[in-house]
Design goal:
Put_HupE_UreJ, HupE / UreJ protein, 198 residues, transmembrane helix, 82% helix, transmembrane, mainly alpha, membrane
Amino acid sequence: MNFGLYFQLGLEHITDPYGYDHILFIIAICASWRIRDWRTVAILVTAFTLGHSIALALATFEIVPVWSALIEFLIPVSIMASCVQNISYPPSERGAKINKNWAYGLIAAFGIIHGLGFSNFLKETLVANESLLTPLLGFNLGLEIGQLLIVAICFAFNYIFVELAHKAQRDWTLVVSSAVAGIAFLLCLEKGAELFFG
């Protein structure tokens, strides 16, 4: 398989509605930011990509073992943690500054968790004796483009709600983060049951 095919796999994997846990995480990242903060969000999403790129490489090269059930549980936990952070820090100038001071590292750490979740899918698509550089590069670039598309959609809805409808950014953050946290909580129950009770 060539670069283009792995790029397509990465793009489709991040935008797959059946794999909506990763979409939820991107929505959670965007929830407390406005369109004028697009540079910050782009850096956050890139930090996430770097984190899961590292994890993908380590897991695919079998340097780090992957406990699938634990990773599948930690993914919704990371989504809930992001939502709680959004709700705890209002999207004020001071709140945004606090977010930027620590969020990059935290998002990268969450990216490692999500990357480990991606690793099994990637390994299943690899051809025997195939070089890993092209698949990793193509897959990660596809994921990054897909994530930026999701960010653009989030910003479009934010613009309609906040700028056109003249609603408070805080209200948008609370509504989106609460909704995403609710879905993530249900995923935590489901994945937690699989982890602890098989």
